[in-house]
Amino acid sequence: MSPASPAAHAPGPRTGQPAAGLAVRGLTVRFGGLTAVEDVDLDVAPGQVVALIGPNGAGKTTVFNAVCGLVRPTAGTVTLDGRPLGPTAGLVHRGVARTLQGLGTFPGLTVLENVAVGVPGRVPGHATGRTTGHVTGRKAGRTTGRSTGQETGRRDDAHERAWAQLVALGLGGRADQPVTSLPYAERATVALARALVARPRLLLLDEPAGGLGHDDIAALGRVVRDVAAAGTGVLLVEHHVDFVMGVSDHVVVLDFGRVIAAGPPEQVRRDPHVEEAYLGLPATPRDGTPR
Amino acid sequence: MDRFLFLVGTGVARGTVTALFALSLVLIWRAARIVNFAAGAMAVVTAYVAVGVAHATGGWWWGALAGVVAGGLLGWLVERGVMRFATTPLGGVILAIGLVMVLQSALGILVGPQYVPVAPPVSDRPWTVAGVPLGSPYDVLTVAVALGLMLGLRLLFTRTTLGLQLRASAFAPEVSRLLGVRVARMRTVAWVLASAVAALAALLLLPTELGLNPHATDVLFVLAFTVAVVGGLDSPGGALVAGLGVGVLMSLVTGYLGASATPIAVLALLVVVLLVRPQGLVAGVEARRA
Fold first, then answer.
1. Is the pTM of this model over 0.95?
2. Interchain contact, A123 vs B165, CB within 8 Å
3. Into which CATH architecture does domain A1-87+221-291 fall?
4. Residue-wise pLDDT tens digits, A17-43
5. Which of A137, A140, A181, B251 is deepest in the core (most CB within 10 A)?
């Protein structure tokens, strides 16, 4: 998992067996002359929680956007189970769900409707053809052989799934309220429910602890661990260091678009490069800092 | 008093038609953030199809069916062929105005400027209750069809997965895409729906006008645009309420002050609403509730 030499990883889809889960190799994204992300390697195995941290502007969200197909990589590959991830609208059907920094809940919809939009199904508006071989439920033991796409295309079924997901996250009582009437922490939970209801195999969380209080962060941590325990890989971008260190199996540190450290939380916490770039010296002017 | 009741009855019938046409504008605004200035010209094209089919088959209802189907088809063509190239709101407006010129000129060449009278499918003689003329069977049919269609659309939007996705992609297209909703397709669906609705509204209007001509829906469009703005461009419910209000107001102004005063009344209403509540009458309520 050491990111030092991308060549050592370069799997090539045909050489050897493709690793399960998300694999990012040599990812480089340039916006005009600005290199936002350079040569980033990253793996998220099923059931693993990986955190992507780094100072503001380090390129964390750009990595996310590249994984989601919102940003086209200048170089490098993004694969899930050895197959490249395609366009954004097809992500749900590859088993990828994502939350957003701004939450992105639908203002005119109720809580239940918000979550129901996240249920993938074979309906006119969705990309057709579910390809997820095994769909992971939130709770272990709910892993069904195959989810029936035809059923999930029906509204009642979608709403039932959305309802169950809300109940699981303790928001059952809010289902019929307009989402904008909820306090921020609960709206964040709605956004999380909307991602989880797709029963993703890879869950991308963009600053999930942002704006949350202490108790809400603790609850979020439990949910993330539950999701991972059920076999879903989790990749999260987060500023909240305590949350990251508590919930992650593996931490990747970005600075100026490059991976400067990667490893288990304790190891990363002690890494001098990380302290220098991020953890210990937040107030130091960045310009003169030797790297 | 008799006159007042009659004018209100007529106004309600006209108002529901205007509301239906305004609903078409609202549907497109919500899905694509474009005011479809071509709605009138598109509807008049489908009206020619409908009247042609009605004359050929001898059945008004066949004509109406053909008109609605043609409306949906035209909506699809316009969205896929023209409007999806609009990258800015202003670009959309200019494309739409260009489309108006093309469609109306083409109609002028193909069918000429003469008026084609359109007979109503049911009697348009008003019923009189105790000597007071109220509304005609055609008025009742108009209101029933318009309200039925609005109810159907409401059910579509609130009770089906397609409706949920239409609303989701209208509110937040980027997020919807992440969730697997095909936003571009939703936009096309909205255009097809809206265009079919506008076609039906134009057909309901025609028997009450002098006849079909390439400019038969111009006034309807201006009224419907006013209604949509008054109701709040984002609000189907606002379109209905404002449509009824404007319809009755226009009917009363025409009846008491004369037909020449109605355009002034419409514009005065538009100006007042834009000054006092630029977000529309209903939009604020929805925003607070939502």
1. no
2. yes
3. 3-Layer(aba) Sandwich (3.40)
4. 556 889 999 999 998 888 889 999 999
5. B251
